[in-house]
# Entry
Amino acid sequence: MTQSGRLYGIGVGPGDPELVTVKALRLIRAVAVIAYPAPEEGPSFARSIVAGWLDGTQGEIAIRFPMRPGPPPTRVYDRAAAAIAAELDAGADVAVLCQGDPLFYGSFCGLLARLGGHYPVEIVPGVSSLAACAAATMTPLVTRDETLTVVPATLPEDALAERLAAADVAAVVKLGRHLDKLKRVLQRLGVSERAVYVEHASLPDERTLSLAAVERAPYFSMVVVRTAIRRAPGTARRAAPQTT
Amino acid sequence: MTQSGRLYGIGVGPGDPELVTVKALRLIRAVAVIAYPAPEEGPSFARSIVAGWLDGTQGEIAIRFPMRPGPPPTRVYDRAAAAIAAELDAGADVAVLCQGDPLFYGSFCGLLARLGGHYPVEIVPGVSSLAACAAATMTPLVTRDETLTVVPATLPEDALAERLAAADVAAVVKLGRHLDKLKRVLQRLGVSERAVYVEHASLPDERTLSLAAVERAPYFSMVVVRTAIRRAPGTARRAAPQTT
# Structure
């Protein structure tokens, strides 16, 4: 009986090919098969990040997701898991390329749930889009005793408002068609002017601007807002970068 | 007049030298001077991560922090900023090595506040301890519409309880001497049994265990807890890894 292969969930970082880790590179070049999320037609962003290091000799599994709102259909994960399991059963190691970090809102989670109990798995953490966006703003994300809240803009308006009101610093992910809702919520909370918008962090077309100036948000975008609405009694928390 | 050097804030990741990015490595080897946080006596953890790639020809500035609770004294940052500024004024590029990510609870923030307006600065994001801890647990950190809250255990007990109660998934950082307080808070919220403790993530002595079994937490440790106390009406959020 063949010994089964190992499944790797590999974070390839936010987009700049140089923000891939040494470990990710070593493993991506060593495995027999790579797998990656991709749109229904066209190239995979995750694959494009490491394309310069691939030599074309590996097997490839493109996991094609329909590009429409809402969670991807279960069958996409089922089919991808079956294709990957077939390789693992044949003794091949498979690396799933994950933009950012595999376990931070990653589509890898759907594969981990299906394959995790059945094969040896290793996760290689990556530089998250959150860290890349913070770097683009050139401002500390959180310091000292601050709380960071990462909130998907996909939440219903009231739930979004509630979570943002409770944050010291909030990072809002998954903007897309939820941009107007987010703008309304931040307006309501009186913190619109503190909202910094970042798109394509770490890529050549990276842009940082005030949220008010944004009319359309691509998938790879994020808003960071130092809400600081809630303060513990007697503490004066500064909104600007700390001096200690 | 000499053109001033460039200041780099470089994330060197959670500890495994292979979790350094290609960009961090390139810049660390290219600059004239490296600077890094260190204890009052003994070696720097951030420096140790990249030590294997240093050739010993660069200038080095050790920023020595007193190892006692509370925020580091202002004068440590003042002196370090002055030493770094002297190098930058002389035209030397300086890379500040930051464990994890520079802007995620990093001591780099104190230098950025002092030098940021005066010299060209570039931030190189790194793999955070958060991503490394999630990888160690082999469990998705956040998926779909979940909110992640990162909370320092240094907060007063009631503030800590309030923030944890409002989270879907919480990562508690800066444990150290606050371990017992955190245990009390999680007990009070009835979620102790869901708390996963990780120490030395990505290092050879990495350990993952249930929080109940932990008696002493080193500085490089974290607790991840899927609190899921608050649920939007009508949604049944699963506590286990999602299947879609």
Remarks:
- Chain B has two domains: 7-127, 130-225.
- Helices of chain B lie at 22-30, 45-50, 74-89, 108-115, 129-137, 157-165, 179-189.
